[in-house]
């Protein structure tokens, strides 16, 4: 009965072939993801990053990426946003294990997690921490994420001050000093400074932990 309802001339199915061709996904599956990964690889190698070069690395036609990224800034903003998301996952996991009633322990955990992430993901750190690749203010997501992370550290210090744990009540100065320490240490590692200071490759994370502990001891009444 179903066979009788379908005219024989439709068995060649030309409309189905056209629909399949139109709906066929791009052969990479997720071109946007592939381009972000290609741009990150270029940055990690110290190469010049461009949309066309990312397309070449991804083995796609030069015009294909522009459906997702109209220019280099848009591409690098997406890379930075992805880096920031990965960083947030690490921070949230570490803070989930830190004692909720001890703000200085949480502040320490945050700083050490930041440093370890920066040292293990140098290309991501370079992209989100400098203006070399794109204008940071052009990404609303990145701006919002940075503000949330700053607010998180401010709350930790405010809680520590409320509990009477800090030597100084100048929380802004402590926060900036902590930022300078963490960023400076990560930057020293990225720029290869530690060998000249007698710190071997396998000792850098151990040194990072010691430096953070020294900072915490300096701001704490304990």
From TrEMBL:
<feature type="domain" description="HTH tetR-type">
    <location>
        <begin position="29"/>
        <end position="87"/>
    </location>
</feature>
<dbReference type="GO" id="GO:0000976">
    <property type="term" value="F:transcription cis-regulatory region binding"/>
</dbReference>
<dbReference type="GO" id="GO:0003700">
    <property type="term" value="F:DNA-binding transcription factor activity"/>
</dbReference>
<dbReference type="Pfam" id="PF13305">
    <property type="entry name" value="TetR_C_33"/>
</dbReference>
<keyword id="KW-0805">Transcription regulation</keyword>
<dbReference type="InterPro" id="IPR025996">
    <property type="entry name" value="MT1864/Rv1816-like_C"/>
</dbReference>
<feature type="region of interest" description="Disordered">
    <location>
        <begin position="1"/>
        <end position="24"/>
    </location>
</feature>
<dbReference type="Pfam" id="PF00440">
    <property type="entry name" value="TetR_N"/>
</dbReference>
<feature type="DNA-binding region" description="H-T-H motif">
    <location>
        <begin position="50"/>
        <end position="69"/>
    </location>
</feature>
<dbReference type="InterPro" id="IPR001647">
    <property type="entry name" value="HTH_TetR"/>
</dbReference>
<dbReference type="InterPro" id="IPR009057">
    <property type="entry name" value="Homeodomain-like_sf"/>
</dbReference>
<dbReference type="InterPro" id="IPR050109">
    <property type="entry name" value="HTH-type_TetR-like_transc_reg"/>
</dbReference>
<keyword id="KW-0804">Transcription</keyword>
<protein>
    <submittedName>
        <fullName>TetR/AcrR family transcriptional regulator</fullName>
    </submittedName>
</protein>
<keyword id="KW-0238">DNA-binding</keyword>
<dbReference type="InterPro" id="IPR036271">
    <property type="entry name" value="Tet_transcr_reg_TetR-rel_C_sf"/>
</dbReference>
């Amino acid at each position: 009965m179903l066979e009788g309802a379908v005219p024989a001339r439709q068995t060649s199915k030309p409309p189905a072939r056209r629909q399949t061709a139109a709906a066929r996904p791009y052969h990479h599956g997720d071109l946007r993801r592939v381009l972000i990964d290609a741009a990150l690889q270029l940055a990690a190698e110290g190469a010049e990053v461009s949309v066309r070069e990312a397309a070449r690395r991804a083995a796609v036609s030069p015009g294909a990426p522009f459906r997702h990224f109209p220019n280099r800034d848009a591409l690098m903003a997406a890379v930075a946003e992805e880096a920031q998301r990965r960083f947030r996952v690490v921070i949230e996991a570490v803070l989930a294990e830190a004692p909720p009633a001890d703000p200085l322990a949480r502040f320490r955990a945050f700083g050490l997690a930041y440093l370890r992430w920066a040292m293990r993901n140098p290309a991501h750190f370079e992209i989100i921490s400098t203006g070399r690749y794109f204008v940071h203010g052009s990404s609303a997501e990145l701006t919002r994420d940075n503000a949330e992370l700053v607010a998180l550290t401010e709350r930790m210090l405010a809680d520590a001050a409320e509990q009477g744990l800090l030597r100084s009540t100048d929380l802004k100065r402590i926060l900036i000093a902590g930022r300078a320490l963490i960023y400076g240490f990560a930057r020293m590692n990225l720029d290869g400074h530690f060998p000249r200071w007698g710190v071997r490759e396998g000792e850098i994370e151990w040194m990072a932990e010691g430096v953070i502990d020294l900072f915490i001891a300096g701001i704490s009444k304990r």
